[in-house]
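One thing: can you check what follows?
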Amino acid sequence: MIDDKILYKKFLEGDITAFEDLVFTHKDNLIYFISRYTGDIFIAEDIAQDVFAYVYVYKEKYNFNYSFKTYIYTLGRNKAIDYVRKQSKLKVIPFERDNEILLDEDSLEEKVIKDEEKKLLLDSLKKLKPDYEKAIYLANFEELSYEEISKILGKTLGQTRVLIHRARKALRDVLEKGAGDDER
């Protein structure tokens, strides 16, 4: 897989297929991320399209000091917040990733265990504050650095570290409370 920055440099040199590769690589996760702000997948798709249109038109604005993913997620976040402000209401939908595909070589027992663990984790994430849920999603599922997360969420690095620490502690508390409920 070619690095995003290499693809972007090719795009700057006029290679449209490099831009298409960037869009194809990042569009689904970007749409999902934006939908966390808008509460509507169709609106999120429109905003993601706006993000890529912005990147296409203003290609020189990209700062190579940041990853391309951080750049588009920041643009997506800002455009989503603008949309929400215009709508003057904020909706947050539950965190779900039902489309994950398990490997074929997993035994039936392993699949059942993974499904149960996934359900427990998703149910627990739904109980967290929206900011905690977003922070854990970006850190653990998107595997972004704290610097990238802070840029996306519009927070300082220190605020991001505290947010993720508190989010993980809250998730741990929810999971432990849930385990305690099962024992009764």
The domain at 4-87 is CATH 1.10.1740.10 (Rna Polymerase Sigma Factor; Chain: A). Helices lie at 4-12, 16-38, 41-57, 68-87, 108-126, 130-141, 146-153, 157-183. The radius of gyration is 18 Å. The longest helix spans residues 157-183.
